[in-house]
């Protein structure tokens, strides 16, 4: 559905989920999977450069700019792969997952295939499979990722994004 625009509620919902899951860090750090990140889990700056451990700290406002740009880019990548219009909550949950695992991985997933077939509950259950990170070359389940996936799944199954505000209050 390449013509789908990104509703403000969906972008806001995705940003809220991501902020909650990632937490803000002004200085570059390695995440659980070893990727160097900054701000709200950004791995790249707007000019395309990868975040490096020696980079200077950024402000929360600068991190917001990176997050909003990344979410918008994810939507541009994801929208053409959607064969049905998602609710704001579904789109926000999909974007949060894509932000964490990458748009390419989401595009190739059974989650997206099930969503496109109309199997909403089946797609929702697929979120729970993405609870692992590669640590020292071995995939390991992480409690923080499991909790994030439960929140994404819950939002994916709600009829509208307004419930996101209630969940995170």
Give a concise summary.
The chain is mainly α and 169 residues long. The protein has helices spanning 8-22, 60-78, 88-101, 103-107, 110-117, 120-126, 143-157, 162-167, and strands at 25-30, 36-39, 132-135, 138-141.
Structure commentary:
The chain is mainly α. It contains eight helices and four strands. The longest helix has 19 residues. The C terminus is likely disordered.
Spell out the key features of this protein.
53% helix, 4 strands, 169 residues, disordered C terminus, two-stranded antiparallel sheet, 8 helices, 11% strand, mainly alpha
Please give the structural blueprint:
Layout: H1 8-22, E1 25-30, E2 36-39, H2 60-78, H3 88-101, H4 103-107, H5 110-117, H6 120-126, E3 132-135, E4 138-141, H7 143-157, H8 162-167
Antiparallel strand pairs: 1-2, 3-4
Number of beta strands = 4
The low-confidence parts are 161-169
Spatial order of strands in the largest sheet: 1-2
Oligomer: single chain
Helix content: 40-55%
- Discrete helix count: 8
The general outline is globular
Q: Termini, distance in Å? A: 32 Å
């Amino acid at each position: 559905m390449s013509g789908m625009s990104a509703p403000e509620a969906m972008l806001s919902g995705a940003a809220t989920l991501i902020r909650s899951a990632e937490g803000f860090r002004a200085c570059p750090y390695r995440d659980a999977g070893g990727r160097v990140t900054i701000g709200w889990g950004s791995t790249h700056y707007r000019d395309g450069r990868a975040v490096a451990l020696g980079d200077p700290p950024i402000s929360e406002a600068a991190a917001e700019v990176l997050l909003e740009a990344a979410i918008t880019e994810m939507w541009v990548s994801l929208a053409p792969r959607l064969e049905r219009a998602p609710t704001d909550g579904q789109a926000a949950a999909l974007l949060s997952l894509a932000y964490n695992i990458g748009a390419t991985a989401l595009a190739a997933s059974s989650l997206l295939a099930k969503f496109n077939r109309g199997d909403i509950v089946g797609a929702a259950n697929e979120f729970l499979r993405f609870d692992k990170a590669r640590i020292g070359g071995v995939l390991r389940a992480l409690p923080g990722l499991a909790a994030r996936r439960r929140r994404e799944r819950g939002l994916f199954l709600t009829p509208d994004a307004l419930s996101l505000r209630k969940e995170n209050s």
